[in-house]
Amino acid sequence: MRRTGTNTLPILLRMLRANDSALKVKCMELAKRQHLIRIKYIPAEELNYRACAAFGVLGAKARSAVPALIEIARQNRSRASRWYAIQALVLVGPPAQEAIPHLSGWATNADGSVRSYAINALGRIRAEPERGLPVLINALNDPNDQIRTAALMALEQLGPNAKPALPVLVEFLSNAQSGIEWAYASNALKAIDSEAAAKAGVK
Prior knowledge:
The chain has 203 residues and is an all-alpha fold. The protein has two domains: 1-92, no CATH class; 93-203, Leucine-rich Repeat Variant (Alpha Horseshoe), CATH 1.25.10.10. It has helices at residues 9-17, 22-32, 44-58, 66-75, 79-92, 100-106, 112-125, 129-139, 145-158, 166-174, 179-192, 194-199. Helix 8 runs antiparallel to helix 9 (145-158).
């Protein structure tokens, strides 16, 4: 991978687009029941995962693939394909900043896992934080506790760039619904502004 570099991008994108039809899955299940012919089969989800892992090796060098990654996530060929395409954008890093508007939209998706992946990406890409910040603040009111936690972790990742969120975070801290939420909110406060955290009683 390191030797071939970005020459592998077309292959990786093809792997991320892989999606097993219901018929194919059924046929492979039937094929496994017989022992006369050995069939080598790699599930599409495994291909999606391997491609995403490869983007972790390439990092910012894969910036030219960002439009294609956005399109793969937008097409939603399968849940796994979409998840790993979003994660691949995270692994590209700040050069994936053109994905921010799309991620902001996906952060309100009806699928909780898509919301979580998109919110995580908004915190970890760290490009143009002011564009994703309103979405992260709104996510603190999500009825799903995992989404709220993802938003807190994303705010922590943004650090001082998330200062506009301080008043909401302080209020969230005082109304935290669990010790875990309180801990994540505390970590976010300390990462954003240690003095404000101390005033809120966070040591």
